[in-house]
Design goal:
Order of helices and strands: EHEHEHEHEHEHHEHE
Distance between the termini: 9 Å
Number of strands: 8
Strand order of the largest sheet: 1-2-3-4-5-6-7-8
Helix content: 25-40%
Number of helices: 8
Mean pLDDT: 95
Radius of gyration: 17 Å
Shape: globular
Length: 249
Amino acid sequence: MPKFCANLTWLFQELPFIERFAAAKEAGFAAVEVLFPYDSNAQDIVNELGRYELTMALINCPPPNYTGGDQGWAAVPATQDRFRRDFNRAVRYAKTLGARHLHVMAGEAVGDAARACFIDNLRWAAAQAPKQILTIEPINADTMPGYFLNDFDLARDVIETVAAPNVRLQFDAFHAAKITGDVMGTWAAMQDLVAHVQVAQLPDRTEPDKGAIDYPAFFAQLDADGYAGWVSGEYGPMTHTEQGLGWIA
């Protein structure tokens, strides 16, 4: 059975943010991820992680208030200086929270200049924070129109061109299903690059249980392939979060 992680940005939204750590522990999770923790006091989060013996698996970069803002800018040539400034802040947060993985968001861009910028920024970031695992995640065009990294072949191209051991793939099965229509085949093609997995069901990004994606088969394949990383539930619960956690069993 994979190691399951709770995304506290999506799950337990019926509770104030700082109370979601206790709820995750009570539900049986050993790790959490928070997409944008920057509006919260870092020490408050550290205290909750310690109190409930939880691991922070992942946070996102960039750090500013994300609501209604840009979807990252690592691949946007005009914002390279801003990316590098904000990356350093994100790394400080990741270190404080003990987050092993830092998801570097590409942003809205297109073309060769965007690819070159993304690769340049990732090489710089990998050297800047050699002990921090940086992940990049293909995101489907329906969820984020115009997002640069919207294809798994492009993700492989970028990672192999950057050629840094701490730049890896974040595999979201929901996005894989939307992009390729074949979660198992995409996993088989990309698993050698994967450092972190996220799950949700089609079509509405709800609990990863019965539906278009055969999650029992997917989880069994992760075990068979020896995947040892976290599998995070990044989905919108259909009702109360705890009522929808049967997928873990």
